[in-house]
Amino acid sequence: MTLRRKYEEKFFRVLSAIFTLVIVFVLAHIIWSIVEKGFSSLSWDIISKEPQGGFYFGKEGGILNAIAGSFYLAICATILAFLVSLPVALFMNTYLIKYGRTLTGIRFFLDVLWGIPSIVYGAFGFTIMIYFGLKSSLGFGILTVGAMISPIMIRAMDEVLKTTPIGLQEASYALGSTKTETAYKVLFRQALPGFATAILLAFGRGIGDAASVLFTAGYTDYIPRNFSDPTATLPLAIYFQLGSPIPEVQNRAYAAAIILTFTVLVISVSARLLSRNKHKSS
Amino acid sequence: MTKRKFIDGLSSKWMVVCLCFFLLLPLAIGAGLVFKSMGLFDGRSIGALIFSSDWSPSEGKFGFWPFILSSLWVTVVALSISIPFCLLASIYLTQFAPRWFLNFMRPVIDILAGIPSVVYGVWGVLVIVPLVSDKIAPFFGTESLGYSILAGALVLAVMSIPYILNMLLEVFRQIPIELGEASLSLGSTKWEMIKHIFLRKGATGIISAFGLGFSKALGETIAVMMVIGNVVQIPSSVFDAGYPLPALVANNYGEMMSIPSYDSALMFGSLLLFVIIITINVLFRYLIYKSEAL
C-alpha cells in the first residue's frame, strides 16, 4: 500500500516534469524551425526595399512596405489606446476606488471585452467602414486595433495602479490638490514604470494581430503616406506570400516570419525585464 | 483656483466619456452585427440558418451547420490535447519544480503567449501539416492531406497553452498554503495532497481557465485558417478538412460585396461567434470572480 502511494507520487512527479519540458521543447522547436527555413532568404533587400513589379512572382524587392505599415499601425494604435486607456484606468483608481462593487463590475466587464476575438473587432470595424462609405485605410486599421488592445492596456494599467498605496492619494488630497491633479501628477508618476510594461504588452498584441486588420487596413505595395491610404501589415504579408505556389515567394514568407517573431520577442522580453525591475525596486 | 477647478471638472468628464465608450463598445458591436445580419432573416428562420448544412451563397442558401461543427470539433480536440499539458505543467511548476525552474518558465510562457498567430500558422504549415499527413494519419491507418481538423487542433492547442497555463498558475497560487500543510502533516504524499485538496479547492478556477481557453480557441482565426483546409463539409473524422466560423469570415471578405446577402451572412457568422464567446466569457469570468470573493 505504502509502496503503491510512493510509486504514484514518483510517477506523477516525473510525468508532470516531462509535460513541462515538452512545452519548452515546442517553443524551441517553433523558433528553430522558422529560423532554419527562413534564414537563407533573409537579406538586406527584404528589409530595405518595397516590392517591385512582379514581387509576388518571385522577382526583386522586399517587404519594407509591410514592416513600415505594421509599425505605423501598431505605434499609432498604441498611442491612441494609451490616450483613452489612461483616463479610464486613473478614473477607476481615484474616483471609483470607494465603490468596490462598481469597480469589480467594470473589471469584470473589461475582462469580458478582452475575450472578444479580433476577427469580431475586424468585422465590426468593417461594418462601420461600409456604413460611412469609406475604403479600408491606415486610419481605420488604427481605430480597430486601438479598440482591440485598449481593454488589455486598461487592465494592465489597473493592475499597476491597484498596488499604489491609498495613503499616497490621501496625502495628496490633504495638501489640497484636486482629483485630476492627484490622478495625473501623483498616481501617474508613481505607476509610470509599470505602465511601460502595459504599453509594450499592447503594442506586441497590436503588431502581431492579423484578423482585425484584414478588412480594415487593406493591403498595398506602397508605404502609406497618410491616414487614408491603405497599408500592408507584416502578418498579412506573411499570410499572402505563404499562399503563393512559388517556392521563392514562400521562402520570403518564412523570412518575414523571422522578422515578425523577433520583433515581438524583443518586445515581450523587454516588457518582462521592465516589470522585473519594478518589482525589485518596490 | 477656479482654473484648477475647471480643469478638474473637464478632465473628470473626459474620464467618464472614455469609460462610457468602453462600457458601450460591446453593445455597439452586438448592435452593429445584428443590424448588418438583418438582411439574412428575410424568409429564413434562425433555426434553419444554424442547423442547415446547405451552403451555396450564389443560390442564396446559407446553412451554418458545417462551420459551427468544424469550429466545435477543432476547439474540443485542441482543448483535449492541451488540458493534460496545462494541468500537469501547472502542478509541476507550483508544487514540484525548484524555484529557478519556475523563474525560467515565466519568460517561456510569455514568449509563447506573445508569438503572433500568423507565426503559429507558418509553423503549422511547416511542421504540423506534414506530421499529420506522413506520420499520424498512416499510424491510424487512414489517409489525410495534412490540412485537417487535427492539424488545426494541434496548432490551437499549442497557442492556448500559455493562456490557460498562466491562469492555472494563478489559481494554484491563490489556494491557501495551510490547506496543503495540514494535509501533509496528516501523512499524505505530495501528490495525494494535490489530488485531494488542491484539485478540489481549485476546481472552479481550473474549470474556468479551461472554459476561457475554449472561448479563446473558438475565436482564433489566422493560424487555424492556414492549416485546416477550409472545405465546406461536415467533418467525419479529425483527419478531414474543416472550415471553422472565423476562417469563413476572414476568407471571404473580398467577395462579400459581389453576391447578394453574402455580407449579411458573414456578419451573421461573426455575430454567432460574438454571442457564443461573450456567453462563455461572462459565465466563466463570473465563476472566477465569485470564487475570488470567497
UniProtKB/TrEMBL annotation, chain A:
Keyword Transmembrane listed: yes
Main location: membrane
UniProt keywords, alphabetically: Cell membrane, Membrane, Phosphate transport, Transmembrane, Transmembrane helix, Transport
One GO MF term: phosphate transmembrane transporter activity
Domain ABC transmembrane type-1 positions: 67-271
SUPFAM superfamilies, per database record: MetI-like
GO cellular component terms given for this protein: plasma membrane
Membrane topology: Multi-pass membrane protein
Pfam family for this entry, one: BPD_transp_1
Segments traversing the membrane: 12-35, 71-96, 108-132, 138-157, 195-219, 253-274
The keyword Transport belongs to this UniProt entry's keyword annotation: yes
Compartment annotation: Cell membrane
Matches recorded under InterPro entries: MetI-like, MetI-like_sf, Phosphate_PstA, Phosphate_transprt_permease
Example of a GO biological process term: phosphate ion transmembrane transport
Family that this chain belongs to: Belongs to the binding-protein-dependent transport system permease family. CysTW subfamily.
Protein name: Phosphate transport system permease protein PstA
Organism: Panacibacter ginsenosidivorans
